[in-house]
């Protein structure tokens, strides 16, 4: 073997290294690697973000109550749940005080509602009640029963397991449902329009 092909390790000198080129190559490799990581991560992150449909489902919903007559209920959908708006009659409002001793949580201390609806009517405007129409027992949808007859003072009845709620969505004692019906965040945009899913400006 020719001695010309043999590299003597002991003769290698660090003085011959181009340090500027080394820094350039390291920086270039780092940048290319970072771009590759971002390129790989983008589809995964995008797949975890909510879809446009999911975003729309959680968006506030505007309700028109201009044609709602006293005693009527209208249903809107917000976050995949039914939201009821009831225009209560004078009789319905008067019934609220007559059933207090029959209620599990008459002051709504254990129930879910915005602070601005923590009152006897559980509403901003006592004439209009806004509730999530899902029973707090097993998630059934109660039936609106506005008639006031005998001991029944009107309100909502869940036929699945017999839970009863008054005209403010407050639950009666001795029924399976543990809590009053939930009041969602909402506010009045005008006398005839309610925005469901968003608190008003304080």
Characterise this structure:
The chain has 202 residues and is of the alpha+beta class. The chain has two domains: 3-48; 56-196, Rieske [2Fe-2S] iron-sulphur domain (Rieske Iron-sulfur Protein), CATH 2.102.10. Helices cover 23% and strands 20% of the residues. It has helices spanning 19-48, 52-58, 90-98, and strands at 61-64, 73-78, 81-87, 128-132, 143-145, 155-158, 163-165, 186-190, 193-196. The strands form three sheets. A three-stranded antiparallel sheet has the order 1-9-8, with no helix packed on it. The chain has a three-stranded antiparallel sheet with strand order 2-3-4, with no helix packed on it. The longest helix has 30 residues, at 19-48. It is elongated. Mean pLDDT is 83; it is low at 1-12.
Sequence-ordered SSE layout with sheet pairings:
Elements: H1 19-48, H2 52-58, E1 61-64, E2 73-78, E3 81-87, H3 90-98, E4 128-132, E5 143-145, E6 155-158, E7 163-165, E8 186-190, E9 193-196
Antiparallel strand pairs: 1-9, 2-3, 3-4, 5-6, 6-7, 8-9
């Amino acid at each position: 073997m020719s001695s010309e092909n043999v590299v003597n390790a002991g003769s290698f000198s660090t003085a011959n290294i181009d340090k500027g080129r080394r820094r350039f190559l390291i920086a270039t490799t780092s940048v290319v690697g970072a771009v590759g990581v971002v390129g790989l991560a983008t589809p995964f992150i995008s797949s975890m973000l909510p879809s446009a449909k999911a975003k729309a489902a959680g968006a506030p919903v505007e309700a028109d109550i201009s044609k709602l007559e006293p005693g009527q209920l209208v249903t809107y959908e917000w976050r995949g749940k039914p939201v009821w708006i009831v225009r209560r009659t004078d009789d319905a409002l008067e019934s609220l005080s007559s059933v207090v001793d029959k209620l599990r949580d008459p002051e709504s201390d254990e129930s879910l509602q915005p602070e601005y609806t923590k009152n006897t009517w559980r509403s901003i405007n006592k004439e209009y009640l806004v509730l999530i129409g899902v029973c707090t027992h097993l998630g059934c949808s109660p039936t609106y029963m506005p008639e006031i007859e005998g001991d029944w003072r009107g309100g909502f009845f869940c036929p699945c397991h017999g839970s009863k709620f008054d005209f403010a969505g407050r639950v009666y004692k001795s029924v399976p449902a543990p809590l009053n019906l939930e009041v969602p965040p909402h506010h009045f945009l005008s006398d005839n329009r309610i925005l469901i899913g968003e608190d008003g400006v304080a």
